């Protein structure tokens, strides 16, 4: 077995074993902490699809994270206050059902990604970075200034949304939902990267001119990748909102975009499991360094700087070697 | 709505735009000459504001505070360039984004550690307090007028420097062909450090000027940084002229949008709804402007098409 495969397996096994151990010794806080890592990992996997596979440096993925969050917030808010979202000839009610919320989160963030991507992908390189960042800021200010859903204060939801017969307020059961989603998303991304589309996208990243020469349209490939990427991150946003039972404009902030990118980089760009390792490492650092000092972001910054300057390829690059697998 | 209010708001927009130009000019110079995207530019803005607030608090002199902001931001810029940024010129944009994002974290938390979480206040000096009468009976804040004039003077100085001085020639040559001017004997690494320090000083200066209107606090730089990105995306990355036009467009759109959009919606909506819809749209106006420019000119108004 290659070292990367071993690392992937160990990581996923640890993410299964640790919460179970925490459950056994009755430490619900540690379960919730791991849930955060898993949800962040899903967001990172989403970004990695555009960033690692398509080479699209999006500094605005908080848009999709936030849209997912607000999809949950708005639907659940209307359901808990028994007011319809739209009340005209067409009546749309809120819902407390997780599958419906996920569906809405994924669809709305995919539509947003289609619109933003169609605009932003007209440019490339450093323009693309700045434009995605700017559009994310636009959503942030919109969320702050739109008073109907809490404005700056955000929205609180009293009880987590429901899924079948599960008690979603029980940390370990909610963790099981998130972990399952992580596995599903990882499997999807793994398959998609090896599909004809994924190969064409990867080729477009490496050499646009050649891909064009064989009759593919890079713009279209990038756009599809961006939509898939946004949809996955939107799903993570809905889960994150459910985890906290709270959404606020912070989910749209540029710091959130930066953090999602940090998950990807800490783990290793372009590796399917990279964002998982990155998110786990981030939560670990936050927990350990946050305990040491209130100014733990200084250390995080120093570590990040060290990774960028001296350990390119992130954690996976350090442990599993530089070469990204070709199989 | 009176014409006086409109003109007053237009002046506010001009003042905002001039300050955005100081930020955008540095960013666009650094990108044009070194090909570097610098997220930490907002931190340099913050450093300038804090240095000014500290010096003004200690000496009571506003002019000394402005000098301090220039010097402190330039020193911070040189340090950052020599220690970190220099290693990033040959890297791809992703590495630059991350390294400078890391710098933001270090600068922000470092400042919070040194000065605490509470905002500092930088008072305008007495000789700039109060208002001034402009023609047509417009009463306008003297300090804001001072910002506009100083900002325009700095902009003029920058244009003069780039067009007529030896350094300016080297900067323009650097934008065209880095290797070539190195081969012609210009000390490239000194030029890079100088350009970075210049950009940093402009950002720090802007921070100090704005610090006297708003409060000086950690995290004040990043919203301005993102607006400066919008400015140079609209103007075209690498173009100082583009940065000036973009900055004025953004400043005026933002300020006038906040004034006019709610009133526009009041024409056909209830006042309460019009205010909230207008305010929401106004907060998005500059980004919509950016999207509009991108549709027609993907590389900005004055950007090269390459």
UniProtKB/TrEMBL annotation, chain A:
One Pfam family, short name: BPD_transp_2
Gene Ontology annotations for the cellular component aspect, listed alphabetically: plasma membrane
Molecular function per GO: branched-chain amino acid transmembrane transporter activity
Superkingdom: Bacteria
Topology in membrane: Multi-pass membrane protein
Transmembrane segments: 34-55, 62-80, 100-119, 126-149, 172-190, 219-240, 260-285, 297-320
Keywords for this protein: Cell membrane, Membrane, Transmembrane, Transmembrane helix
Protein name from the UniProt record: Amino acid/amide ABC transporter membrane protein 2 (HAAT family)
InterPro entries: ABC_transp_permease, LivM-like
Main location, first listed in the record: membrane
Protein location: Cell membrane
Automatic annotation (TrEMBL), chain B:
Keywords for the protein's UniProt record, in alphabetical order: Amino-acid transport, Cell membrane, Membrane, Transmembrane, Transmembrane helix, Transport
The UniProt record lists the keyword Iron-sulfur: no
CDD domains associated with the record: TM_PBP1_LivH_like
Keyword Transmembrane helix among UniProt keywords: yes
Subcellular localization, as worded in the UniProt entry: Cell membrane
Principal location class: membrane
Any one cellular-component term (Gene Ontology): plasma membrane
Membrane-related topology note: Multi-pass membrane protein
Example GO biological process: amino acid transport
Transmembrane segments annotated in the record for this chain: 16-37, 44-64, 70-89, 101-122, 142-163, 184-213, 225-252, 273-296
A GO molecular function held by the record: transmembrane transporter activity
Annotated family: Belongs to the binding-protein-dependent transport system permease family. LivHM subfamily.
Name recorded for this polypeptide: Amino acid/amide ABC transporter membrane protein 1 (HAAT family)
